[in-house]
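queue> holo job accepted (flavin mononucleotide)
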Amino acid sequence: MNIVAISGSPRQNGNTEIVIARVLEGMGETADKIIRINDLSIRGCQACKSCRQEGAAGCVIDDDMQTLYPKIIAADVVIIGSPIYYGYLSGQTKCFLDRWYAFRDSKKELRFPEGKKCIFVIVQGAPGRERYEDVISDVRHIFLKYGMDVSIIVADGVEDKGAVLNNDEILQEACFIGREVRRKFDAN
Ligand SMILES: Cc1cc2nc3c(=O)[nH]c(=O)nc-3n(C[C@H](O)[C@H](O)[C@H](O)COP(=O)(O)O)c2cc1C
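queue> job finished
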């Protein structure tokens, strides 16, 4: 099972990374797999639409997203985590996601096969897992449009670095989802 795990939080070993690490643990993988967008140089989409020209190979922006494109294309499972910043995904995560525009070609066909698994982790300081329902809905739609099967984990009420370590329910859910994805993959 080919896994790519990406964190959109700038906080090393923060809540987003802790939850992603639990998902990986459930899959029998280790946290050192986590790629931090904040450590990379990833510009926002420039809307040049070069990726959507006939014969184009993909995005033409020469930055670190070029190292992530092939990893995502090759992945069976894509794990992405983002903290909520001012009611939406972090800027790092949004820049990264906007660059997914290049995963469709001139005929709007996908540049990777349908059926990948996406596990998206949302971490928020405010209590109430339904508080950012609009964000959850946006995330679900983005990945459904890429033919992916989406599971979303919401860790709420975790403000301080590492606070999610006190929330066993979320950590167990993350581990369970990871384990289930591994089990289903191995069964196929
Ligand atoms: C710039 C900024 C904006 C934030 N905005 C929100 C917000 O709108 N709603 C919320 O619930 N938490 C908000 N938070 C809290 C973070 O979502 C929370 O601390 C989260 O645990 C951070 O995850 P991390 O430890 O992985 O970085 C904000 C934090 C920062 C730094």
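queue> The first strand starts at residue 3 and ends at 7.
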